[in-house]
Design a protein that fits this description.
This protein is an alpha+beta fold and 70 residues long. A 3-stranded antiparallel β-sheet has the order 1-3-2. The model has no long low-confidence stretch (mean pLDDT 86).
Length: 70
């Protein structure tokens, strides 16, 4: 019997991960140090780490850009 996909599974498959570089471009070409500072200040949510690389869900970045709280 096939298992049912959970909401988290569905969201993960439809909400792509963005690299640090892509996020910086999406936010107007900000510098790496600015991204780091925003994470430290709580302006930017903490990233998802996969093999020592940082990723953010596209939906989180879109919410941030629109002024909504992630």
């Amino acid at each position: 019997m096939a298992s049912k996909a959970t909401t988290a599974d569905h969201m993960a498959s439809t909400d792509p991960l963005l690299t640090s570089s892509a996020v910086r471009q999406e936010l107007g070409g900000i510098a790496e140090v600015t991204l780091w500072r925003w994470i430290q200040q709580g302006v930017m949510p903490a990233p998802i780490y996969i093999t020592n690389r940082r990723y953010w869900r596209r939906s989180v970045i879109e919410e941030l850009k629109s002024g909504s709280s992630p």
